[in-house]
Amino acid sequence: MENGQPLSREVAVVTGASRGIGLAIARQLGSMGARLALCARSAGAAEHAAVALRADGMDARAFAADVGVAGDVRRFVAAVRESFGDASILVNNAGVGVFRPTQDLDEPDWDRVLGTNLKGAWLMSREVTPGMIRGKRGHIIHIASLAGKNTFAGGGAYCASKWGLRGLAGCMAEDLRGHGIRVSVICPGTVHTEFSPHAGKDPSRMLQPEDVAHVVAMLVTQAPASFVSEVDLRPTQKP
Q1: Which of 46, 68, 83, 187 has the fewest CB atoms found within 10 Å of its own CB?
Q2: How far apart are CA 102 and CA 178, in angstroms?
């Protein structure tokens, strides 16, 4: 810890960081002293977020990558390493949703949802893990959803991706705990973001992106002898 900032020695990678939950997580980690590598598909959106964070005194840099494409991920992590060194915190937040009856899904929809939400988390984790193993420490946090535990009409691809993400997180935790790397998954309920309009629900009763960011902060500042595997996060009042 330097200057009272608990993450002053950390390099944090946040995917889907240009808005919503990802931007809130990046802001939280940056306020705690972490150097930030912001990943988004759009270079312009990523840079816009980085400019806003730098205006608040944070060390934030923008990178464009599609987390579902292995080559993009490889180039992104190499660029982060060149800029900051090895990542010590990874937040796999990038996600997309296609919501329609399973019989009406087409293959590109399925591939896009599973490719981003599940394969993307695996690709990104696989790429940063060697550096964490070298450093004998690290945090990998997957942003899943209560949709990874509960089914609903029209949620076939999305629920499958989030159930899979929870399974991936559990296996990764077992694979990596001996290297000092802690793997956790956060399962938020309804969050007020642009991701989904949540028609008919009261935004003031929804979770806010900052609520998810608070949980991330809790996980990365936990005492080193233990880790939280999974957090379910719900609003106090049902929307």
Answers
A1: 83
A2: 40
Catalytic residue check, 158: yes
Could you give the CA distance from residue 216 to residue 29 in angstroms, rounded to a whole number? 8
State the Cα–Cα distance between residues 36 and 71, nearest whole angstrom: 21
Distance CA 46, CA 115 (A): 20
pTM: 0.95
Topology classification of domain 11-233? Rossmann fold (3.40.50)
Q: How many CB atoms lie within 10 A of CB 48?
A: 16
pLDDT 10s digit of each residue in the chain, 239 long?
Answer: 567 799 999 999 999 999 999 999 999 999 999 999 999 999 999 999 999 999 999 999 999 999 999 999 999 999 999 999 999 999 999 999 999 999 999 999 999 999 999 999 999 999 999 999 999 999 999 999 999 999 999 999 999 999 999 999 999 999 999 999 999 999 999 898 776 556 667 787 889 999 999 999 999 999 989 999 999 999 998 77
Match 């806010």 to its residue by tokens: 208
- Selecting among 145, 158, 188, 216, the annotated active-site residue is 158
Q: Which amino acid is at 143?
A: I
Distance from C-alpha of 66 to C-alpha of 93, rounded to nearest angstrom: 12
CA 7, CA 1: separation in Å to the nearest integer? 6
Helix (H, G, I), strand (E, B), or coil: what is residue 163?
helix
Helix (H) or strand (E) holding 9: none
The residue to which tokens 């969050």 are assigned: 191
And the tokens for 99? 């919501």
> Tokens representing 24?
């809130």
Distance CA 122, CA 102 (A): 24
